[in-house]
């Protein structure tokens, strides 16, 4: 797994990158938790998600937001981190111009950044939002959410209570043309302590089913004139 350094808006960004053997393979970007609370690209959940996509033939990147590890710059409360994520996707796409589709997976703070990136980039066809925090971060920009995806969290999450995540899911489920899949991991807290395997199993199942053409809305029937 090559260590990479690429240019971001606030200086160099440090990442781990694994290209697919297929020229037109989809791209997956994995975004880490809050930089001010110990979040890095080496978070165990981020690490496992990276390998989940890699094993399925994706060209895969995880990286440190500005100010973390060898990434230059300073924490920017989300705005700069979103620019970092966009620069990371630009960098991978410059190396893989034949890749037309992309997925984004984010954990906690990273899920908020990932969902914002989703709104900016129409090539993102799927997302995984792990332990999102709609009680802390504003998700009203998802109007409408352009892609189908997975929202997964624990029922013992005290950082982001289940009722708040349920409210976000219910709002997204009213939108037409996409399918939001919600999974709740029993007994899991915000960090999935002792439940990492359960989390990964749900994410793998969702990704495999999407790659098989499932869990997307049925196309609207064509009107007969």
Shape summary: globular
Spell the H/E element sequence.
Answer: EEEHEHEHEEHEH
Taking all Cα atoms into account, the compactness measure Rg is 17 Å
- Count the strands? 8
How much is the average pLDDT? 96
Commentary on this structure:
The chain is 31% helix and 22% strand. It is α/β, with parallel strands linked by helices. It has an eight-stranded mixed sheet, sandwiched between helices. Strand 5 (102-107), helix 3 and strand 6 form a beta-alpha-beta unit. Helix 1 runs parallel beside helix 5 (196-211) and helix 2 (79-95) packs across helix 3 (109-120). The longest helix is centred in the middle third of the chain and has 17 residues, at 79-95. It is globular and about 50 Å long. The chain starts with a strand and ends in a 14-residue tail after the last helix. 40% of the residues are buried. The mean pLDDT is 96. Residues 38-132 form the AB hydrolase-1 domain. It comes from Martelella mangrovi. Keywords: Hydrolase. This is Alpha/beta superfamily hydrolase.
In terms of topology, how is this protein built?
Elements: E1 3-8, E2 11-18, E3 27-31, H1 44-55, E4 59-63, H2 79-95, E5 102-107, H3 109-120, E6 124-130, E7 149-154, H4 162-173, E8 180-185, H5 196-211
Parallel strand pairs: 3-4, 3-5, 5-6, 6-7, 7-8
Antiparallel strand pairs: 1-2, 2-4
Helix pairs in contact: 1-5, 2-3
Short description, anyone?
By secondary structure, the chain is an alpha/beta fold. The protein contains five helices and eight strands. It has helices spanning 44-55, 79-95, 109-120, 162-173, 196-211; strands spanning 3-8, 11-18, 27-31, 59-63, 102-107, 124-130, 149-154, 180-185.
């Amino acid at each position: 797994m090559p260590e990479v350094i690429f240019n971001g808006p606030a200086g160099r960004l440090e990442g781990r990158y694994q290209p697919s053997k297929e020229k037109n393979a989809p791209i997956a970007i994995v975004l880490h938790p809050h930089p001010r609370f110990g979040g890095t690209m080496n978070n165990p959940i981020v690490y496992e998600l990276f390998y989940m996509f890699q094993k399925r033939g994706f060209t895969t990147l995880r990286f440190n937001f500005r100010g973390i590890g060898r990434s230059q710059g300073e924490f920017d409360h989300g705005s700069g981190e979103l620019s970092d994520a966009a620069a990371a996707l630009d960098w991978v796409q410059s190396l893989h111009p034949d890749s037309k589709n992309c997925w984004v997976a984010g954990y906690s703070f990273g899920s908020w950044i990932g969902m914002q990136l989703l709104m900016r980039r129409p090539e993102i066809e799927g997302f995984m939002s792990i332990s999102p925090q709609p009680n802390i971060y504003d998700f009203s920009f998802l109007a409408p959410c352009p892609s189908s995806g997975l929202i997964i969290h624990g029922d013992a999450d005290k950082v982001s209570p289940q009722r708040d995540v349920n409210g976000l899911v219910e709002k997204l489920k009213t939108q037409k043309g996409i399918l939001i899949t919600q999974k709740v991991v029993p007994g899991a807290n915000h960090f999935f302590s002792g439940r990492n395997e359960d989390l990964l199993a749900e994410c793998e199942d969702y990704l495999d089913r999407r790659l098989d053409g499932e869990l997307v809305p049925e196309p609207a029937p064509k009107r007969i004139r």
